[in-house]
Automatic annotation (TrEMBL), chain A:
Organism lineage string: Eukaryota, Metazoa, Ecdysozoa, Arthropoda, Hexapoda
This protein's record includes keyword Aminoacyl-tRNA synthetase: yes
Cofactors required: Mg(2+)
Protein name per UniProt: Phenylalanine--tRNA ligase beta subunit
Annotated B5 domain residues: 290-368
Subunit structure: Tetramer of two alpha and two beta subunits.
Annotated GO MF terms: ATP binding; magnesium ion binding; phenylalanine-tRNA ligase activity; RNA binding
Organism: Allacma fusca
GO biological process: phenylalanyl-tRNA aminoacylation
From TrEMBL, chain B:
Reaction(s) this enzyme catalyzes, per UniProt: tRNA(Phe) + L-phenylalanine + ATP = L-phenylalanyl-tRNA(Phe) + AMP + diphosphate + H(+)
EC number(s) per entry: 6.1.1.20
Name recorded for this polypeptide: phenylalanine--tRNA ligase
Pfam families with a match to the protein in the record: PheRS_DBD1, PheRS_DBD2, PheRS_DBD3, tRNA-synt_2d
Cofactor(s) needed by this chain: Mg(2+)
Family statement: Belongs to the class-II aminoacyl-tRNA synthetase family. Phe-tRNA synthetase alpha subunit type 2 subfamily.
Sequence intervals crossing the membrane: none
A GO term, aspect molecular function: phenylalanine-tRNA ligase activity
Presence of the UniProt keyword Metal-binding in the record: yes
Record's subcellular location: Cytoplasm
Alphabetical list of CDD domains matching this protein: PheRS_alpha_core
Protein species of origin: Allacma fusca
Keywords tagged on the record: Aminoacyl-tRNA synthetase, ATP-binding, Cytoplasm, Ligase, Magnesium, Metal-binding, Nucleotide-binding, Protein biosynthesis
Length: 579, 521
């Protein structure tokens, strides 16, 4: 969830009202944003107060002071939602897209804002909003990269092409000397901010680049802008370019930038239409889109989904407060015609409009009812058996452990004396673990219990632990190539191994499961060799002649691997056959 | 009269002593002497040891034993110091002083004995014994043809050192202090501190002590002797014995309570024993776009083995693809290029909602009927770990699916659910979730923290999720979820999740965990 930091006093000035922290918190809560933190700048003599506000991930229109204050003003019915327009000028600013961009970053959308007045806070917003958008919807510039330029320093038309890195040479933003494209990749390796974006184009044969008609480089997207066209507080006319691998996202990003920042134009909320010409396409495209979309919703559906009873007119007023201008269409049956503005790209279905009615109505005001859905409950049989066995084993004096399903490969191999060559290929492996502890899904429960013993050596002996949980086995007959298996594992840790205790636990469990001790049609144990167990002290557990697990005295090396000094016996069996 | 106190107590101690069988005598010797009434002064256990000729520690044991019988005697601790012979001192008592030994080794008469021979004969006592004997005037030195000889100057001697030490050992000594000091310097004696007791009559003093029974026995019951026997009082201030019992894990005890609440409310459990899930069911089926941050490898564990899912219902996959990429069922969709390879990537499920998706799809295939489902099981997140976040945790999820149910029904059922967890005050904040609309975060009032804290998430499943599955259009579906760990940590005041879950938990915490009664805060 993105967080925006806004200066409290500036925000209140825009809202035309002061709030206490509690009042503002309450307003946020109702609107669906969250006042996460209030901080005071200790270095600032005036003690500027900053509000950190959590914004829902799909509300790009709330990521700056302009958008946030505008939405709250509309929500509190102080203003009407503005109308955003893209006006076609006498002469369109054109951007030509070369086919060479196809394989690296094929799209660009552009816009112009005229006669802007950038105050310090407006300038800060311009910078911060780009940053927030880059980080969220732009997916760290992989989908969209934004460049904003001082139009008056440039000579349109612009050309967006992809050129060999050696043929690109310009003075990047805030640098003292010019760099070639390939040199920039090396130069920015040590830049903590920029280095994260280098991988997006570094290995491409051609780098995307935007130039003006005189060959001045505007930017090398998605890495860095040129210094030549940099925006300052004195800038009057702004040229926006968003290069992208995802055209939908680029359109949204541009719409957001324009709807937010056009507030600072002499003619508020008005942008200048621009033309994008793809070399290999016949018809040009025009941006910013600033498209208003109509959605028709049935008031009775809205009422029935929410569980309230508003008139269509009340509903329309509610939606107005959410920046969704609505008109009641009276024909045979009432319907609402809702205009979805270019700020609200999150609205993609009538369901989103219904939600906004509910928010404007107030979630806490909706009558809380119970669904009349009459159903008879049941538990999953495997889980029911698990719970019954857990209770019975605890009654037998064992203490339940709860260990992790993820483990290191070593936990399943060397630590329990299994050969890595044999065991590792049987493990489900995590592709992107951040630490060794999450390399694989566990294949047995034993390591977890031994780790629990290891952490509790100070406790009085004997220690009797158990766990009933799932392990993950590879299984090509399942769609995902794997399945869980429910296992029961118990350990007895004392001065003597207590094999008879663990064996007794097996007998007890089988008694409870009404399984007789018999080789045919019951359970039995048979001597076996297993590297985890001490030689001659291991047996397999057979149920209906099928091996369901093992029990025995653990091998001294296994004990050492878990820093255990006492003998220990253990049992691990699969229980799914007993459901 | 003083003597009286001493006497009766002595008898008692002696009797108790005998009763305990310390001398191998088990019969009780009843003191028959008349009791004296005053008890202003007491008697020292040291004195008793002397009088009864017993080891002091055994006397102390007898006194303690008398005390345990009630308030027959009082005992006040006292410390005193006394002289004790060292090993060397004891050897003198046994064999005589060094000087006496040297004297004995010198033959009577003028002939005497050469010094080297004398030293040889007297060993360790030789050197010091010789100088002391000469000092005492018992022996003299003479030189004869270059040989140093010792001869007696007296016929017989009295070994005063031995005599004094004997007396000192018995404690009947009249030896003067300066002599004692001299013995101390010679390391024949040392001072030791003795802890003793001054014993006095107690309020319930009696000379007829009787063995108190410690416990009721089958024999006492059978013989009826319990009617006349006295029983040793219990110490009710002590704790009972810790029992050797088994325990269930605290978190899973809470899980059982949640399960019971769901069952009471008519929810059926979903089969969640499938940790590895395809991205298709974990994300795409839930209308989570393929470029959503949750699908980033910073958030989700992907699998390198088994890396891919081999089958997905094809017709359903096509509908999902369409609703994502171009929109369908009244939705604009996300308008991007949906990729099958992305959907086939296996992940460790990031939420149990993946299972809910499978259940709803199955429900649609088998013919819709109103349903209520729940699950409580593990989910996995490749997140940054801290005191409250682990890579795996338990998710609690409830789903209601019926015709024409309302958002108000969802609020109501969540309120009821939390009421059963002992949380009376809940409220709802609008929120965003890719697969629900409307979406709400559930906040509960925390009386301890005096503020509203987020406890769960909820919403109505989006039409883009339900309709491609084949769920009828008038059916609405509610879901809500929360973690099992968070309310458990709040309930038991646990700050670090590793103290609750995983192999590093303190078993004592598990042993001491109370019953899970969520309504008792």
């Amino acid at each position: 969830m993105p967080t925006v930091n806004v200066n409290r006093d500036l925000l209140f000035e825009k809202l035309g009202q002061s709030y206490s922290d509690e009042e503002f918190d309450e307003l946020c809560f109702q609107f669906g944003i969250e006042l996460d933190d209030v901080t005071t700048d200790s270095n600032d003599p005036k003690g500027a107060v900053t509000y950190k506000i959590d914004i829902p991930a799909n509300r790009y229109d709330l990521l700056c002071l302009e958008g946030l204050s505008r939405a709250l003003l509309v929500f509190t019915k102080k203003i009407q939602a503005p109308v955003y327009r893209a006006v076609k000028p006498g002469s369109l600013i054109k951007t030509v897209v070369k086919a060479s961009t196809k394989n690296v970053r094929p799209y660009v959308v552009t816009a112009v804002l005229r006669d802007v007045t950038l105050s310090q806070s407006a300038y800060d917003s311009l910078i911060d909003l780009q940053e927030k958008l880059h980080h969220n919807i732009c997916r760290k510039r992989s989908l969209v990269a934004i460049g904003v330029h001082d139009l008056d320093t440039l000579s349109p038309p612009f050309v967006y092409s992809a050129d060999p890195p050696q043929e690109i040479n310009f003075l990047p933003l805030n640098q003292k000397k010019s760099f070639r494209g390939d040199e920039l990749m090396i130069h920015y390796q040590s830049d903590n901010h920029i280095k994260h974006y280098l991988h997006l184009i570094k290995d491409e044969p051609l780098f995307p680049v935007i130039r003006d008609s005189k060959g001045v480089v505007l930017s090398l997207p998605p890495i860095i802008n040129g210094n030549h066209s940099r925006v300052s507080m004195g800038t009057k006319n702004l040229y926006f370019e968003c290069t992208a691998t995802d055209l939908t996202k680029a359109t949204i990003v541009l719409d957001i930038l324009i709807t937010m920042l056009s507030e600072h134009c002499n003619t508020k909320f008005e942008a200048e239409l621009t033309e994008v010409i793809y070399e290999d396409q016949d018809s040009p495209c025009y941006f910013p889109a600033l498209k208003y979309r109509k959605e028709i919703v049935k008031p009775e559906l809205v009422n029935s989904v929410i569980g309230i009873n508003l008139t269509p007119e009340q509903m329309a007023l509610s939606l107005d407060r959410m920046c969704l201008k609505s008109r009641v269409e009276q024909s045979t049956e009432a319907s609402l015609e809702v205009e979805v503005p270019p700020t609200r790209h999150d609205v993609i279905h009538a369901a989103d409009i219904i939600e906004d009615v509910a928010i404007a109505f107030g979630y806490d005001n909706i009558p809380k009812t119970l669904p009349a859905t009459n159903t008879i409950a049941s538990q999953v049989p495997l889980n029911k058996l698990t719970d019954q066995l857990r209770n019975s084993i605890a009654q037998a004096g064992f203490t339940e452990a709860l260990t992790f399903s993820l483990c290191s490969v070593e936990d399943e191999c060397e630590k329990v004396r299994h050969s890595r060559d044999i065991k590792e290929p049987q493990l489900a492996r995590v592709a992107n673990p951040k630490t060794l502890e999450f390399q694989a899904a566990r294949h047995s429960l034993l390591s977890g219990l031994l780790k629990t013993l290891q952490a509790n050596k100070k406790m009085p002996l004997p220690l009797k632990l158990f766990e009933i949980s799932d392990v993950v086995l590879l299984d090509s007959s399942v769609d995902t190539g794997s399945r869980n298996e429910r296992r029961l594992c118990a350990v007895f840790y004392n001065k003597s191994p207590g094999f008879e205790i663990i064996h007794g636990l097996l007998d007890r469990i089988m008694l409870l499961l009404e399984v007789p001790c018999s080789e045919a049609g019951g359970y039995s144990i048979r001597s076996a060799e297993d590297p985890t167990y001490f030689e001659g002290r291991c047996a397999v557990v057979l149920y209906n002649s099928k091996v369901i697990g093992r029990l025995g005295v653990l091998h001294p090396e296994v004990l050492s691997n878990f820093e255990l000094s006492m003998p220990c016996s253990a049992i691990e069996i699969a229980i799914e056959d007993f459901v | 009269r003083l003597h009286g106190v001493k006497f009766t107590i002595r008898c008692l101690v002696k009797a108790e002593f005998l009763r305990k069988g310390l001398k191998g005598i088990t019969t009780l010797s009843q003191p028959t002497h008349r009791m004296y009434l005053t008890h202003t002064d007491g008697v020292s256990s040291l004195q008793l040891a002397t009088e009864l000729e017993e080891d002091h520690q055994k006397i102390v044991g007898a006194i303690k034993s008398l005390q345990s019988l009630g308030d027959i005697v009082e005992a006040e601790q006292a410390t005193s110091s006394r002289w004790e012979l060292t090993a060397e001192g004891s050897s003198i008592v046994k064999n005589g002083s060094h000087e006496a030994l040297v004297f004995k080794a010198v033959p009577p008469g003028e002939e005497g004995i050469p010094q080297p021979d004398l030293m040889k004969a007297t060993g360790a006592s030789g050197k010091i014994g010789m100088s002391k004997a000469i000092q005492a005037g018992w022996l003299k030195v003479k030189k004869e043809g270059g040989v140093t000889k010792l001869t007696r100057t007296v016929e017989s001697i009295v070994d005063t050192v031995k005599k004094n030490l004997e007396e000192l050992e018995k404690g009947t000594s009249t030896v003067e202090a300066n002599v004692i000091n001299d013995y101390k310097k010679r390391k024949l004696m040392q001072q030791v501190t003795v802890t003793s007791f001054i014993v006095r009559r107690g309020a319930g003093f009696t000379t007829t002590i009787e063995k108190q029974e410690t416990e009721l026995t089958p024999e006492l019951i059978a013989s009826g002797a319990w009617k006349t026997k006295k029983f040793k009082p219990y110490n009710f201030n002590a704790l009972g014995t810790p029992l050797a019992v088994g325990h269930l894990h605290p978190l899973l005890k809470v899980r059982s309570e949640f399960l019971e609440i769901f069952m009471e409310m008519g929810f059926s459990e979903m089969p969640t024993n499938k940790y590895i899930e395809s991205s298709f069911w974990n994300f795409d089926a839930l209308f989570v776009p393929q470029k959503h941050p949750a699908r980033d490898d910073h958030d989700t564990f992907f699998l390198s083995r088994p890396a891919k899912t081999t089958s997905v219902p094809e017709d359903y996959l096509e509908r999902v693809k369409k609703v994502h990429s171009v929109g369908d069922f009244g939705s604009q969709g996300y308008r991007y290029e949906w990729k099958r390879e992305e959907a086939e990537k296996n992940v460790l499920r990031t939420h149990t909602t993946a299972v809910s998706a499978r259940m709803l799809h199955k429900l649609a295939q088998e013919g819709f009927k109103p349903s209520k489902f729940f699950s409580i099981d593990k989910v996995f997140r490749n997140e940054t770990l801290d005191a409250t976040h682990l890579a795996e945790f338990h998710q609690v999820e409830g789903v209601v699916c019926d015709r024409n149910i309302t958002l108000g029904d969802l609020l109501g059922i969540i309120k009821e659910f939390f009421r059963r967890l002992g949380i009376e005050k809940v409220r709802f904040k609008p929120a965003y979730n890719p697969y629900t609309e409307p979406s709400m975060e559930v906040f509960a009032y925390h009386p301890g923290l005096k503020k509203w804290v987020e406890v769960g998430n909820s919403g109505m499943f989006r039409p883009e999720l339900l309709l491609p599955m084949g769920i009828p259009p008038d059916v609405r579906c509610h879901g809500w979820g929360l973690s099992l760990e968070r309310p458990t940590m709040i309930r038991y005041g646990i700050d670090n999740i590793r103290d609750l879950v995983g192999p590093r938990v303190d078993l004592q915490m598990v042993y001491n965990n109370p019953l899970c009664r969520l309504d008792k805060h």
